[in-house]
Amino acid sequence: MIKSPVIKAITATISALMIFSAVSVSANAASIDNNSKTLSKFQIKTSDNTKNDIPSAYSSVELGIVNSPKSQKYNDCWIYSSLSVLETKLLKKDFTANNFSAEHMNLWATTKSNGKGWQRNVTSDGYAFTALGYLSSWQGGIEQSDYDTLAEKYTPDKDLSAFVNYGATAIKYLDDCTQEEIKHEIMDNGSIYAAYSHSPYYENNDRTAYFCPQGSPKFTGHAIAIVGWDDNYSKENFKAINGVLPENDGAWLVKNSWGDYNTLNGYFWLSYEDSYLFSSTFKYNFAVEDVTEITDDVKLMQNEIYGATYEFNYINDDSVTYLNLFNFSEGYNKLDSVMFETTAKNSDYEIYYVPAENKIPVSDETKWTKLNSGKVPYCGYLNIDTNDFDLPVTYGAIAVKIKKNNESEKTTIGVGEWLNKSNGQFAFINESQKGESFIYQNGTMTDLLDWYKTERDDNLGGTFVIKAVTNKTELAVTLLGDIDLNNKIDIKDATDLQIAISGDSKLSAVQNLNADTDENGEINVNDVTQLQFMIANNN
C-alpha cells in the first residue's frame, strides 16, 4: 500500500496538550488555581480610531456574545475552543447556544466498535480537523442539557444529529490571512479558533499575558478562541524572555479553557508578535463563516461524517471532477446548496447535478445540469447556492469540478482519508465504501476506491467531502414496484425488495412507497409476490 504523505497531514494537526512532534508540558487543568476575580480589568471599549474600518480595540465579550470559559478535563482544548467559536457565531446571529457538550464531541471522536474513525480515547489528544469534521457534518453542537439525558447509553456508534439545532455551512481557514483580515473575521463572526505553542515559562506572573519570542523552541500545542484585540495593549505587560519583549504594543484577547484560573476570569492577552500563533506549525486556524438552523424540513446528505482529513492532490490535470452519489428519495428534493472542502483558493469551480444509471454517475456530460460556478474565495468549507434545484427522486450525483487558472495551479478537494502517526500507527481509519465517490477524467467515470487501488495500491482509499443541503418536498409514489428508482420495474426490483424484507438493506421513504405493491400500507412478502405478477404482466 502506498502511504499518503502523512507527515504533511499530521503537521496540519493540533492537539489539546500534545502535538506528535511536540514536548509535553503540564499546562493542564490540574495545575490551575481557582481565582475568582472581576472581568472588568480587561474590558475594552471599541475605539473610533480605525484602519480600513478596523477599530484599534474590540471585544466580543463586551458585546455579550461569548459564553464563560470552561475547564477542560483532558487533552481536549481543541474541543472547547471549537465549540466556543460555534457558540459565539450563533449568539452573534441571535440564535441560542447555551452550553454545547464537550463530552459528546470527545466521545464522538473516539474509535467506533468496528475499529473505524479516530484512533483515540477520551483522554487522548486531537486535531483541528477532528473538530472541523464534527462541525461541518452537523454532528454537533449538542446542548449539554440534551446530552445529559442520553449520555449513559451513548457510544460513538450512535447518531445524535437529531439533537443538533444548528449546523455550520461555511468554515474559512485563516492560516494565510493578514492581521487585518483576521480582525475582520473576529468582527464578522465573533471569534476564531487558533493555536500556539504553550509553556508556562512565557506567561507573566499573574498568567494574564503571554509572549513567546521568535526563535524560541516549540512546546505544547494549545488551542484557543480569540475573541478580540487591543492595539494599545502595552508590551510592558509581557514577561521579558532573556531581556526580550515584543517590539510593539498590541495583543489578542483570548478565551482559554482552563476555567477561572487567573485575575481575568480565564481570559488572557497574547502578543501579536508571538512566535507560533498563526504559523504553519499549527493548522488549521479557522472561522465559522455561516450557520443554518436545522429543522425537520432540512437534511444534510453526506457520505462521511469526519470531514476532510487530507487534500486529494494526486492528479495534476488542468481540471478534475469529483462526485458523490446520493439516494435522493427520502423526500428532500429541493437542493438548497452544495458544501465541499478545498484548499484550491482562487481556482475556478463548477457545480453539477449528474444523473446516475445503475447507481453510477453517467459520463455523458450533455446529461449533466450545471448548477453554479465561480472562483474559490478561500481555503476551507464552502457552501454554494444552487437555487432550489429540483432533484429527481432517484440516485444522482453532485459533482464539483475544480479548474486551474492564471491565479491558481491547484485542483484539490477535501477527502476523508486514513492517516498514520509518525510512529506508523493509525491516527484515523475511514469508513469508505464503493459507490459513494467517483472521479471523472477524460470521459471516464471511475469509482474512487477502484482509483485508490489501481493508482495508489491503497485498499482503504477515501471519501470526497461533498455534501448536499436539501429541503423537504412532498412524498409520493414515483412508480409502483420501482425499488431501485430507475423508472422501470424488472427482476432486480423484486430481488432488492426481498433483500430489504429480510433486513439486509434499508429502503428510503420513496422506495417504501414504491414497495407497497399491494397498496395495503405494509411491506411484506405479499408485496414481492405482487411485484413478480406485475413484472410477468409487463413481459
Automatic annotation (TrEMBL):
Residues 54-281 form the Peptidase C1A papain C-terminal domain. Keywords: Signal. It comes from the Bacteria. Residues 1-29 form the signal peptide. Coiled coil: none annotated. SMART domains: Pept_C1. SUPFAM superfamilies: Cysteine proteinases (SSF54001), Type I dockerin domain (SSF63446). This is Peptidase C1A papain C-terminal domain-containing protein. It comes from Ruminococcus bromii.
